[in-house]
Design brief:
By secondary structure, the protein is mostly beta strands. The chain has one domain: Tumour Suppressor Smad4 (Sandwich). 0% of the residues lie in helices and 22% in strands. A 3-stranded antiparallel sheet has the order 2-5-6, with no helix packed on it. Strands 1-7 form a two-stranded antiparallel sheet. It is globular. It starts with 9 loop residues before the first strand and ends in a 9-residue tail after the last strand.
Length: 86
């Protein structure tokens, strides 16, 4: 089980997720999905390249979880280590 990624979560080399679902929030912030934007301090603008197969949003984009990667190769880091999605 992995923790969810939300807008403003960090990337492993610095930077953050800059967009998220317009429909689905968790603890007051939009959940991030495959295809959502991020800015990596090492590589510049990028997008989330992975998502959880079991968790699509209304537009069928898959929700991102802790450890998933961006197109630049950096991993996403959840600020909610004690919250897990199966």
């Amino acid at each position: 089980m992995k923790s969810p990624i939300r807008k403003d979560e960090k990337l492993e080399h610095g930077g953050e997720v800059t967009s998220g679902s317009p429909w689905t929030e968790f603890m007051g912030r939009p959940l991030a999905r495959r295809g959502d934007e991020a800015t990596c301090e090492l590589h510049g603008p990028t997008v989330i390249d992975e998502g959880a197969d079991k968790f699509p949003d209304r537009d069928h984009k898959l929700f991102a979880l802790d450890g998933h990667r961006c197109a630049c190769g950096c991993r996403l880091i959840s600020s909610l280590p004690n919250v897990h999605f199966a």
